[in-house]
Amino acid sequence: MSAKPILIYDTTLRDGSQGEGVSFSLQDKLNIAERLAEIGIDFIEGGYPLSNEKDVAFFREIRKRDLGVTQVCAFGMTRRKSIKAADDPGMQALVAAETPCITLVGKTWDYHATDVLRVTLQENLEMIGESAEFLGQHATVIYDAEHFFDGYGANPKYAIETLLAAASAGARWLVLCDTNGGTLPERIAEVTADTINALSDYDVEVGIHCHNDGELAVANSLAAVDAGATQVQGTINGIGERCGNADLLSVMANLAFKKSGYEVLGGQSLQHLTELSRFVYETANLQWRSCQPFVGQSAFAHKGGMHVHAINKAAKTYEHIDPTLVGNERRILVSELSGRSNIVAV
After folding, report:
1. Which of 49, 68, 69, 313 is deepest in the core (most CB within 10 A)?
2. Cβ atoms within 10 A of the Cβ of 244, count?
3. Are 96 and 67 in contact (CB under 8 A)?
């Protein structure tokens, strides 16, 4: 049985840049995009072209580069209320970016529609459908359903209607967003499965976009994949607003080495993950997280004498995978906790 491909959608350059202390120059964004494309990331979200001139320049410059199979996405909101999609400056900016994919975010939670956008529930559906239809004339539309899990909890019928509005208008992907980052894995799995079933009459794929406010973004992403999602959105190193996003490095490593039946990056080696992690940290002028799973400097570091004695005989006793699979390395530390095995190993 062949492995099921799970497409990886990177939003480091947009959602990641919203993290506290993160600021990318235009050249930083171009360098990161090229590095992501080199390793085979399926989608790169380059930014929000209506928000600033740097993002406009990014889309202009990235068109000059060969990114292979990687597709660049421009990100933006549904049309404003009481205006035609074709006349909306946001819609025009997305089209002007000339990207093969456009990621359109809309309101799923009825509370957000009525109390934040100040529109009726029907107009919100029209804003989603008309925006997706207009943008679909120019690019593949990926619809991000903002606050989907909160919206589904408050009004499941309406939350599904927002997805159907996008699907009926031609959106190719429907991405379920845990925007507040507070949903638990079992709930993610349940709602994702129910949603995929509700969309069975439409030729669409479902993705997942999780924030990390409950420190469950990776677990929630994996739960959604097991429930049928075929695209995972996140950032390198999990950077992003508030507590960050799902760390795509951990997502990819878990799908490739921990779960069976899935394939990422077309089945390519993941030995570049550690180098990519550090490249993004350095580009963003951020400190490495030493204890970061899979790629951190301490992920395969051993200090206790008992541990070192054991791994010298069988590494799997205290290592859940071979560190070389993700481009990392084993380190033996020396301290007052060391035994003879530490000294010999060093």
Report:
1. 49
2. 24
3. no
Close Cβ partners of 346 (under 8 Å, ≥ 6 residues apart): 332, 334
Distance CA 319, CA 275 (A): 20
The whole-chain average pLDDT of the chain stands at 93
Q: What is the pLDDT of residue 236?
A: 98
The residue with tokens 């390395």 is 329
Q: What b/e sequence results for 9-23 when a residue is b if at least 16 CB atoms lie within 10 Å of its CB, and e otherwise?
A: bbbbbbbbbbbeebe
In whole angstroms, how far apart are CA 306 and each of 227, 302, 326? 40, 9, 25
Q: What are phi and psi of 99, to 5 degrees?
A: -95, 155
Q: Tell me the pLDDT tens digit for each residue of 282-341.
A: 999 999 999 999 999 998 888 756 766 677 776 667 779 999 999 999 887 665 544 444
Neighbours of 209 (CB within 10 A): 29
